[in-house]
Design brief:
Blueprint (H helix, E strand, L loop, with lengths): L6 E2 L1 E3 L2 E3 L3 E8 L4 E8 L2 H17 L1 H4 L2 H17 L1 H12 L3 H21 L14 E9 L2 E5 L5 H14 L3 E6 L8 H9 L7 E5 L2 H10 L5 E5 L2 H14 L3 E4 L4 E5 L5 H13 L9 E7 L3 H14 L1 E2 L11 E2 L5 H16 L3 E4 L14 E4 L6 H4 L6 E7 L2 H8 L7 E5 L3 H10 L4 E4 L18 E2 L12 E9 L1
Parallel strand pairs: 1-5, 7-8, 7-10, 8-9, 10-11, 12-13, 12-19, 13-18, 14-15, 17-18, 19-20
Antiparallel strand pairs: 2-3, 4-5, 6-22, 11-21, 16-17
Helix pairs in contact: 1-8, 3-5, 3-7, 4-5, 5-6, 10-11
The structure holds nicotinamide-adenine-dinucleotide.
The site of nicotinamide-adenine-dinucleotide has 27 residues, from helix 8 and helix 9.
């Protein structure tokens, strides 16, 4: 087992500090054993972090920089991460359970946010508005000030990088709360900030319990903008707290996203997408392909091929999976694993068929078998509720309208997809799907450059792409009488 530091601190105002709350034992989900201790922030620590960010913002140091200089600092942070990708990926793999190759990809993606938003920092322009010869009118994009960012455990490094890079690119000072279940690897982001000499207070990174540190952040009066990624329940609480202080928030919440598989789909291509769509990160992906709605003529073949795929996936400790392939790691902990297993059991009682999987592995670690469920009633619990595990529900359709109605028939609307060779059908369906992002013939198509976010209970506001920057700035109009 690789050695990692035994005790991880919080980073406030450019200093590594202990937490006011009890330190927390971080577990390795592949073994269930203690991995390291994490300092946990209490409300006083959050106050210190917000004060440091506020002081940094009010000093004007970030806003005074020419955007290209801020952008260079961000790009250097990304390069710093890439230079240490092996070390960071090992930490991420140990604390979160994902395969090592997926952890390395997460570091690459995190670095990409610093590269992308580093470049865009100098491209966010205001406009001039014609008011006739007696006036000169133009707009400025100004930062909110203190941006509070609350991060979930499924992609702790990548999701933190996403909001930190956009926040700093627009000259906001950031206070970031890492998830208590996987708090370690995101600390490399603070190390990167130190390495490039980011001004003190520009990035503060703390861990802590949601109900303690998270709640203190979302209710703090000096926080001027909130970015939250996580569950619908918590998102709703954070939106209420933001409303109390009249601050905007971006909510990236859950999903129950569906792929529509048409009769003419390239099935080998679809099965490849299914593998990535539901077995990446053991299915703990907000935009997972957790439902497949399959044309009746190809239904049996799709179910058979999906089951063969699931049976061919090796499940075990993330460190064993160095190369991309048919492998899957642990879920984040036993609680999440048992929750997913209970969903499968109840689905069986509700009349669905567990084609393969549905059970935990008989070994230490939080492992669940790759699971295919068919004959799913779209209105049933398994057809409606986010499992957040390696479990896909397959349903049958016989006309396009039915498929679209099933796809749109949940409270969520994060992503959707269609697999067909018919471009006309693909376009009509893409328009009809109520989701923030639609994939045609490849699940997860897109990248850092493409806007991402939800319809319905999947949230509001957009991360990724240039659109995201608009969440981090407020427009000031200046009208000059000449
Ligand atoms: P969660 O809502 O329990 O926790 C997310 C974060 O919020 C954690 O840092 C947690 O400490 C904090 N938190 C918890 N209670 C809080 C409170 N009362 N006030 C402030 N902060 C609080 O979610 P989770 O279990 O960590 O993540 C899984 C969920 O997140 C799933 O539903 C998944 O779909 C969703 N998710 C969405 C996206 C996306 O981009 N849309 C990405 C990842 C995860």
């Amino acid at each position: 087992m690789p050695e990692i530091s035994d005790y991880w601190k919080n980073f406030i105002n450019n200093k590594w500090v202990d937490g006011g709350s009890d330190r927390l034992s971080v577990q390795n989900p592949s073994t269930g054993e203690h991995l390291a201790w994490q300092a946990m922030a209490d409300a006083n620590d959050i106050n210190d972090a917000v004060s440091a960010a506020k002081t940094c913002h009010e000093s004007g140091v970030l806003g005074a920089m020419r955007p290209v200089e801020r952008g260079r600092l961000l790009r250097h942070m990304g390069e710093w991460l890439l230079e240490r990708a092996d070390e960071i990926a090992t930490t991420l793999c140990l604390e979160q359970g994902k395969p090592l190759w997926e952890a390395k990809r997460e570091i690459t993606n995190a670095a990409r946010y610093f590269e992308y938003y580093g470049s865009l920092s100098e491209a966010l322009e205001g406009k001039s508005i014609p008011l006739g010869e007696n006036y000169l009118d133009f707009t400025l994009n100004e930062p909110y000030g203190v941006s509070a960012q609350i991060i979930p455990w499924n992609f702790p490094l990548e999701i933190a990088a996403r909001s930190i890079a956009a926040g700093l690119a627009t000259a906001n000072a950031c206070v970031v709360k890492s998830p208590e279940l996987a708090p370690l690897s995101s600390q490399y982001l603070a190390q990167a900030a130190q390495a490039v000499d980011l001004p003190a207070g520009a990035l503060n990174l703390v861990s802590g319990l949601g109900t303690e540190a998270g709640a203190a952040m979302s209710t703090h009066r000096d926080v001027r903008q909130i970015v939250f990624t996580g569950s619908v329940e918590t998102g709703s609480r954070i939106a209420a707290a933001a409303a109390q202080n009249i601050v905007p928030c971006v909510l990236e919440l859950g999903g129950k996203s569906a792929a529509i598989v048409c009769r003419d789909a390239d099935l080998e291509n679809f099965i490849n997408s299914l593998r990535a769509g539901i077995f990446t990160n053991a299915g703990q992906v907000c935009s997972a392909m957790s439902r497949a709605i399959v044309h009746e003529d190809i239904y049996d073949e799709v179910v058979e091929r999906a089951a063969a795929l699931a049976d061919s996936i090796s499940v075990g400790p993330g460190l064993d999976w160095v190369e991309p392939g048919l492998n899957m790691g642990a879920m984040i902990n036993d609680t999440q694993r048992d929750r997913a297993e209970a969903f499968c059991e109840r689905a069986g009682k509700d009349g669905a068929r567990i084609v393969t999987g549905g059970h935990k592995l008989n070994s230490p670690g939080s492992f669940l078998q790759p699971t295919i469920i068919d004959n799913v009633d779209p209105a049933s619990e398994i057809g409606q509720t986010e499992v957040f595990g390696p479990v896909i529900s397959i349903m049958k359709y016989n006309n396009d309208d039915d498929a679209i109605n099933i796809a749109n028939g949940t409270q969520y609307g994060l992503v959707g997809g269609i697999f067909t060779k018919d471009l006309d059908r693909a376009m009509k369906t893409a328009r009809a799907i109520r989701a923030g992002q639609v994939f045609v013939n490849e699940w997860f198509a897109g990248g850092v450059e493409t806007p991402f976010g939800g319809y319905g209970k999947s949230g509001y506001g957009r991360e990724k792409g240039s659109e995201a920057l608009l969440n981090y700035v407020q427009t000031k109009n200046i009208a000059i009488r000449l």
